[in-house]
Amino acid sequence: MAAFKFYPGITRPLILLITLLCYSMDSFAQPTPNYHLSASTGLSTSGSSVTTWDSQQGSYSATQSNNSRRPVLEADGINGQPALAFDGSNDYLLLPDQNGFNTGGPFAAKTIAMVFETGSDITSRQMIYEQGGSTRGLNMSIHNGNLYLNGWNVNEDNWGPVDIHTPVATNTTYVAVLVFDASTIFGYVNGNLIGSAAVTGPLYNHGDDGALGGTVGSTKYYDNTNSRTYFQGKIAEWYSYNIALGDSDRSALEQTLSSRYQSLRLSIPMDLEGVNITSSQVDLSWTDTSDNETGFILERSTTSGSGFVVIDTANADENSYTDTGLASGTNYYYRAKTLYDGYNSDYTSELMITTHSRGPIAKSWDFDVSSEGWVGTGVLLNPTGTGVLNFSYNGYGSPRIQSPSNPGVNL
């Protein structure tokens, strides 16, 4: 057994240091969800049809025993990552009753986060996720081009359903987060707050199972209706917490999911190049390889790999920019990236250009017209550039340029 020695005046500071280190390490830990489904792991399939989706946390599984109602696993479902494709007709996975999910309430707080991609239909009413029944529950659904995040508890405290919504587009990936804290429901999409609604108490226990990709049993939509509908689209991840994630934890989760499923899906601009370089400006251009961008960011630095600043935010489909006011004889580094709804693609490779050492200083040169038939004037770049000489020749002799530093130079 190891022996420990204690020294006066040192023991207490050591204990304090250890305590502070433990607190510091714990303060950086991210909350662990009660349940986390990710299409990259925990899947059991029959062919490509998903029978069971096991949670990475907790002993919990989403299941479908009916072969004709199973979603299909797509290995390259969303941005090169696996996802489950639901047909919008009758596919769904059952989220069974469990204390940590729905039957163990009342729940003073909850957070539901998920990654999904819409299909070609965003008009029909479609249930993406739901838990609860006609009296208590939470859900996310699509209707008439909008995504709705909803909750209700009409028995005990008589609140909800709530109407928190935002427009969505077809065939587009979203990170949606619903945060409930017994006084407010907040809705976030792609890291942005889309709305909130006041509530007046906890979410009491609610059976009737739950589902991903469809409705089982009863539910309640934002407009207080109740019908079984199914999602046409893909689901890649789903999280369930029995806490209300704070802003920093929620943002960290959103950024992780965005980088995995959204940022990299944007095509990087191609063929970044600079032409018409002078001592003070360059014309920059790139090839737009994306069909869903909202714009482009162009950055510049005088140091490779660091110090970049934004010099232009171009609109969608724009592909050129003239950078002016540059210093002569200087190396400049450029890079560009694609924007989509607040998210970015990777950067292009750096482009280096070097401005001219000195501007084109016009100098007039006299022609030596010792041979008959030569008339004209010319301009050359100083000191070593190329220029244009304008003259005419009637067929006699050879022209020469007279220069103070190099007289008699033949053209």
Q: What characteristics describe this protein?
A:
mainly beta, 3 helices, disordered N terminus, 30 strands, elongated, 6-stranded antiparallel β-sheet, 411 residues
Explained architecture:
The chain has about 400 residues and is mostly beta strands. The protein has 3 helices and 30 strands. The chain has helices at about 10-25, 100-105, 245-260, and strands at about 35-40, 45, 50-55, 60-65, 70-80, 80-85, 95, 110-120, 125-130, 135-145, 145-155, 165, 175-180, 185-190, 190-200, 210, 230-240, 270-275, 280-285, 295-300, 310-315, 320-325, 330-340, 345, 350-355, 360-370, 375-380, 390-395, 400, 410. The strands form 6 sheets. Strands 1, 5, 6, 8, 13, 14, 15 and 17 form an 8-stranded antiparallel sheet that branches. A 6-stranded antiparallel sheet has the order 7-16-9-10-11-12, with no helix packed on it. The longest helix is centred in the N-terminal third of the chain and has 17 residues, at about 10-25. The radius of gyration is 33 Å and the shape is elongated.
Radius of gyration, in Å, reads 33 Å
Task: Characterize the biggest β-sheet.
Answer: 8 strands, antiparallel
Helix content: under 10%
Low-confidence stretches: 1-27, 359-411
C-alpha end-to-end distance: 95 Å
| Broad shape | elongated
The share of residues in extended strands comes to 35-45%
